[in-house]
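Our consortium's second objective concerns turning raw sequence data into structural hypotheses that experimental partners can test. To show how far this objective has progressed, the report includes one record in full. It was chosen at random from the queue rather than selected for favorable results. The single chain below, 497 residues long, was entered without modification.
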Amino acid sequence: MFGKRTSFGGNTPGVSEVARPIPSAPPRVDTPAQIKRAAESDAMAARMRSSEDVIDVRAPAEAARDKEYFQTKSAIFNALIDSIDLSQLATMEQDAAREEIRDIVAEIIALKSIIMSISEQEDLLEDICNDVLGYGPLEPLLARDDIADIMVNGSQRCYIEVAGKVKLTNVRFRDDAHLMNVCQRIVSQVGRRVDESSPICDARLPDGSRVNVIAPPLAIDGAALTIRKFKKDKLTLQQLVKYNSISPEGAEVLRILGRVRANVLISGGTGSGKTTLLNCLTAFIEKDERVITCEDSAELQLQQPHVVRLETRPPNLEGEGEITMRDLIKNCLRMRPERIIVGEVRGPESFDLLQAMNTGHDGSMGTLHANSPREALSRLESMITMGGYSLPSRTIREMITSSIDVVVQAARLRDGSRRITHITEILGMEGDVIVTQDIFLYDIIGEDSNGMLVGRHRSTGITKPQFAERARYFNEEANLVEALEKSNTEQRELLDS
């Protein structure tokens, strides 16, 4: 039945017609334009193939295993689930539960007379413990500190972001049910749930990494799990300078902004490093200040001793009990805060944050999604308007100018690098327009042989910004002027050379 076919339906010629000789076509001669298009098509296909290169996250010995290992693992795992009491296991300490599972698995291997080497048995025990107590196939990804994002698109495709580039991995789940079990385990740690009645959920891992789950029926091809990982070693401004995210003089200006209690809005796109930069700025808050943070999912990592962390709450099954960001910020004002830090401003809570900044809570900070400082101010105005406040545009803009001192813009460039592109000061109003001035800018000069962008941070020549008065009050004016003048001197020397 798999031989050559002689008939393909009613319109196909019979055997006698097929046997008739077919006149040969003239040889094809491609024009130069056709040859060029074909070459471009081949190059594009090669780029697409290279972009789908699969990263093997397993150890070499583990990658060499065949299907028998996974069949054995499934059989032992099913036998384990049948023989243990999961409710009792949940009450045990992590280490004790792991030892209990190891003992039971060893007995199952002996009873089933499965022949395995010691190393294979150890790896099998670790895999099964991860499935029962941990995050299953995600464990090796979570253990790596160089991964910024983990993106699971259904049970059979998992991507990671490394060095600013998204790569496909060979991580797989057994099936959609296995993936949903891992998702449930993650969100249940923070008292939340994900199922058909509540298919969207934000949560966090114990290390503060942000988690988003969207489950069927909203996710058509199986649950989609996204994890924004945090580095175990907290980044500092000095490390941002080392990675060329900001110049040393720009870092000194940011340090002074955090020190002198300026109201700062950090703007940027998704994955541009806004939360990382916010953590860096909060490192310069004095130890004796009372700081209250408000977040949708707690991910800020402040090092001060006097910090109160607040987190929003979704509604329950009956649709009641929801606590919004506005509720948290309003309650903050009754808790005697000296600084209010909002993880992300995304709605009408922006009005309450501006009110707080304008009523004695200097040094408050927040992040916002926008592509430029000017756009950040426009978005802030739009969010206040969407909150139902029937205020004139001029009144809202006057509130913005009197509340926010500086907008810091972060960006993720096309080569995957992250840069602080603007440090912009808000001066006031001129008519109905908010007046701003840039203190530092980042210019892209070109591209090196490896396809990485080359650029430099430069000062705009301003040596005494408006927040210099605030710096004088905190005895930081000399450091501010020195940093700006040093940057201007380097700029002139670069132009002269």
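The partners drew two points from this record. DSSP finds 18 helices and 16 strands in the chain. The first strand starts at residue 54 and ends at 55. Both points have been shared with the crystallography group to help prioritize constructs.
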